[in-house]
Design goal:
- By secondary structure, this protein is mainly alpha-helical.
- Helix content is 81%, strand content 0%.
- It has one domain (13-67).
- The protein has helices at 9-39, 44-67.
- α1 (9-39) runs antiparallel to α2.
Length: 68
């Protein structure tokens, strides 16, 4: 007995693309900013903390944009 999931292919592809955008863009931005902080010779713990905070804030902003 097989279940046909082909009617869900379009919405699932759209959902997967939105999820990838919501997580990938903030991840890249937080890595770039964290490396910029390290390039300024600031402590590593500061770069990690700022990167994490930026990641969370941008994910929340992206969620508000995509769910609005």
């Amino acid at each position: 007995m097989d279940i046909d999931f082909s009617p869900l292919q379009g919405p699932l592809n759209e959902l997967a693309l939105k999820l990838a955008i919501i997580l990938f863009v903030p991840f890249i931005i937080s890595i770039v900013i964290g490396n910029m902080i390290l390039a300024l010779k600031l402590p590593e713990w500061l770069a990690k903390a700022v990167g994490l905070i930026i990641f969370i804030v941008i994910v929340v902003i992206m969620l508000m944009i995509f769910l609005a």
